[in-house]
Amino acid sequence: MTLGLSNSPIMHSKSAKSLEEAYEICRKETAKWAKTFYLGTLLLPPVKRKAIWAIYVWCRRTDELMDSPEAMKLSTSELSERLDNWEEKTKAIFSGHVENELDAVMGDTLQRFPQSIKPYLDMIEGQRMDLKKTRYETFEELELYCYRVAGTVGLMTQGVMGIDPAYTTAPWSRAPDPSEAAIALGIANQLTNILRDVGEDRGRGRIYLPQEDLKRFNYSEEELMNGVVNRQWKELMAFQLDRARKWFSKSEAGVRWLSADARWPVWTSLRLYRGILNAIERHEYDVFNNRAYVSRWIKMIDIPISYLIAQAK
Fold first, then answer.
1. How far apart are CA 213 and CA 219, in angstroms?
2. Is 133-313 in the same CATH topology as 1-131?
């Protein structure tokens, strides 16, 4: 999932002469490529939303190291070298070494919201999995992949979102580990992406649905590659949607303990992204010929609903 680094507007833009201009580039890129996610970030205080945009762009660069049109032309060894170089560059940013505007906004974000480098290195490791694997035998294998490429985002952003001060005084039985909830939301989002993008991923020769599930529902890989929507496929997809919804539910307990200014945007993003699952159902699970998305009017309705939920905590 790569933007070729040589084509990055942040890397080469002559007009981005200030930190604010660099953050504005991050904002525009987030708005272009992650519309539902971006809508949620607008509900954050300015300093937090800018940090989230910077992290998103770093993640997008990492993601695109494997899946850009440019990357498709590269050999496995060349892709591996790109990931190695990106890992070294990331370590340099965390050490305070800045070469360009993206480095600058990330450095500024890390200064304002200190955090561990581990989730960033784990995400790069997730991209390495795409070098080696195009199939996942069990859900346990897929869960590891989902953690690395998306659960890590929850860890990257939880320090920006902040925790409600009441969390530290709440009885342990009422206060779940915020890191576990953050990871769960990332996994839920990635499972949703996988279900929405089955048709696109088959074109890349990748099947993320666990092989054990295909066997369980008697649906063949050949049928998937041909886009067959039959009873077995619908039952298989209903099972996958239920699993994704359980991960969303697991994350909800942690959202309730976020800082007050982060609960509304996170609830909004959570509910809207989960809405993609509803869209898949409305298309009767035909993700081969239909792109599942949340309509604008549903977004407008859900924003105030999410606000009320956030206030109730």
1. 9
2. yes
